Amino acid sequence: MTATARAAQAERDQRDAYARRMISIYAPVEFAPVRDKARVYYGRNQSKRDTGVKATEEVAKLLAEARATLADTTTGPARPSRIEDFRRYLVIFTSDERIFLVRRVPEEAERQEQAAAAQRRADQIRGSVLVVAALDAEAAHDVAYADELTREWNTRAWQAAHA
């Protein structure tokens, strides 16, 4: 019985993680111009480009499913699913563009100290630093690896939600 409960929890955790990634990637472009939304969607789903799949409909569907997953309260409380719930994450890349470290950006008091330490570490490994907004660290990986347009909309959405 315990193994079954653990398996069910692991499955739920996987669905939640997928939902957080979809929201972290697509929620910022939800109200973007159709061209930008299509570029973000087809950039991540190139096999669907010339198949008749409409990016606007797919983004809406993915977001609705992800939000429903995180809003499901049958086995516990609803989980964060809005842009307002995004947190800032500091991502350090190695010189060969692999992620070395993802760490949540602390509140204002510690922010400067952490930024300086991250930049020193990036310099040591000849890498770079990026700050993204996401629902969790795993989703921050996806946003960090996303194309420039996705990251631009991510930044805009964060700033609009926290202005």
What's the number of extended β-strand segments?
A: 3
Structural class: alpha+beta
**Biggest sheet character:** 3 strands, antiparallel
Question: What is the helix/strand order?
Answer: HHHEEHEHH
Mean pLDDT value: 86
Structural shape:
globular
Computed Rg: 17 Å
Q: Point out poorly predicted stretches.
A: none
Oligomer: single chain
Number of individual domains: 2
Strand content: 5-15%
Distance between the termini: 48 Å
Helix content: 55-70%
Determine the number of helices (DSSP H or I, runs of at least 4 residues). Answer: 6
Lateral strand order in the biggest sheet: 2-1-3
Write the layout of secondary structure elements.
Blueprint (H helix, E strand, L loop, with lengths): L1 H25 L7 H11 L10 H17 L15 E7 L5 E6 L3 H17 L3 E7 L2 H9 L2 H14 L2
Antiparallel strand pairs: 1-2, 1-3
Helix pairs in contact: 1-3, 1-5, 2-3
